Amino acid sequence: MSEFRTEASHGYSVQFSPFLPQRLACVACQHYGIAGSGSLFILDISTHGLKQVTRRSWGDGLFDVAWSETSERLVLTASGDGRLQLWDVTQPGPPLQVYLGHEREVYSVHWSQTRGENLVASGSWDGSAKVWDVSSSECLFTCRGHEAAVYSSMWSPHIPGCFATSSGDGTLRVWDIKNPSFARLVIPAHTSEVLSCDWCKYDEHLVLTGAVDRSVRGWDLRQARRHVFELHGHDYAIRRLKCSPFQRSVLATCSYDRSVRFWDFAQANPLVQTIEHHSEFVCGLDFNLHIQGQMADCAWDEMVRVYQPACLSPNT
After folding, report:
1. How far apart are CA 256 and CA 170, in angstroms?
2. Contact 187/201 with Cβ under 8 angstroms?
3. Which H helix or E strand runs over 180?
4. Is the per-residue pLDDT at 197 higher than 80?
5. With contact defined as beta carbons under 8 Å apart, do 204 and 210 qualify?
6. Whole-angstrom Cα distance, residue 216 to residue 218?
7. Disulfide engineering: 158 pairs with which of 34, 204, 207, 234, CB 3.0-4.6 Å?
8. Separation between Cα atoms, residue 21 and residue 48, nearest integer Å
9. Pairing of β 83-88 and β 129-133
10. How many helices (H) and strands (E) does the chain have?
11. Residues linked to residue 241 through DSSP beta bridges, in sequence order
């Protein structure tokens, strides 16, 4: 295991680079995100552990991070002042661009996953999701319909121009930028706030949600009246979930119960491993796309950790 302390800053999100196997980004906030500034940490995994490459600061808390899908140098952050920041991590100084448009905290940001697009989706506590043109920093569309904060916005890795959002109103919504004035699909996913969603990397119809009710549910978008599976095991709200890029039925979740859990929904006993190596809420989680079985997480205890759970070993 490798670890790094984001001293005096409480971790909210972590993501591995899609270009460099050893590199990851983490965003963190002073005072648990309630007040103060935010920091972007660019870290490299070395033989001596996690080493800081660079650190950037913003005047408000940073809640989410997304690497560019077109350049190894670019990364986006989402902040509490309603803005997005585009950084060149090889150049010192302020962001290259700042995206203005949201009226409240921006809690999620995600770079489009399909070829031929260079778009970003963001979700905010103002109840809207926005789609941005990276090159011009202009907002192309504002997607309205949620009745509470949008906590997650995730592009489909399969369908161009399609992304999903989850919200405090308990719904999962699917949007198509060809007609962004209303959601293509609205699913009453949970009776509590839905803090996270993600697409299965091997099934374009399958989207997963994680909620305050401590459950994960899987939704087949072709017949979404009822979830196709449900997972239980966390003691408190599920803050973030991520589907494996290597195995169709494997996912990871992190929670306010301070644990990270690994699941295989194809098994009769789907909870395959629980890891408890943080002393505060675990908010960030990601799979390394380049190294099978390698994970990163971050938490309010100021720690970023990179590790390989036994359940994800290629030999198991």
Report:
1. 18
2. no
3. none
4. yes
5. no
6. 7
7. 204
8. 16
9. unpaired
10. 0, 28
11. 253
Q: What is the pLDDT of residues 132-141, one digit of tens each?
A: 998 888 999 9
110-140: string of b/e by CB count within 10 Å (b at 16+)? bbbbeeebebbbbbbbbbbbbbbebeebebe
In whole angstroms, what is the distance from residue 217 CA to residue 238 CA?
A: 11
Q: Are 289 and 18 in contact (CB under 8 A)?
A: yes
Say if residue 117's pLDDT is above 90: no
How far is 68 from 71, CA to CA, in rounded Å?
6
Each residue's pLDDT tens digit, 12-56: 999 999 999 999 999 999 998 998 999 999 999 998 899 999 999
pLDDT at 315: 67
**Half-sphere exposure (Cβ direction) of 264: Cα atoms closer than 13 Å:** 11
Residue type, 34: I
Average pLDDT of every residue of the chain: 96
The band of 316, judged by pLDDT with boundaries at 50, 70 and 90, is low
Q: What distance in Å separates the CA atoms of residue 62 and residue 79, rounded to the nearest whole number?
A: 4
**Which sign does the torsion angle of CA 303, 24, 275, 30 carry?**
positive
| Largest pairwise CA distance in the chain | 52
Q: In this prediction, what percent of the chain has a pLDDT beyond 90?
A: 93
- Among 134, 143, 149, which Cα is nearest to 162's? 143
Whole-number pLDDT of residue 314: 75
> Nearest-CA neighbor of 310 among 295, 297, 299?
295
**Exposed/middle/buried for residue 176 (C-beta within 10 Å: 0-12, 13-18, 19+):** middle
| pLDDT score, position 113 | 80
| pTM of the model as a whole | 0.96
DSSP-assigned states of every residue in 279-311: SS-EEEEEE-SSSTT-EEEEETTSEEEEE--GG
The CA distance from 199 to 272, in Å, is 20
Q: Coil, strand or helix: which one is 190?
A: coil
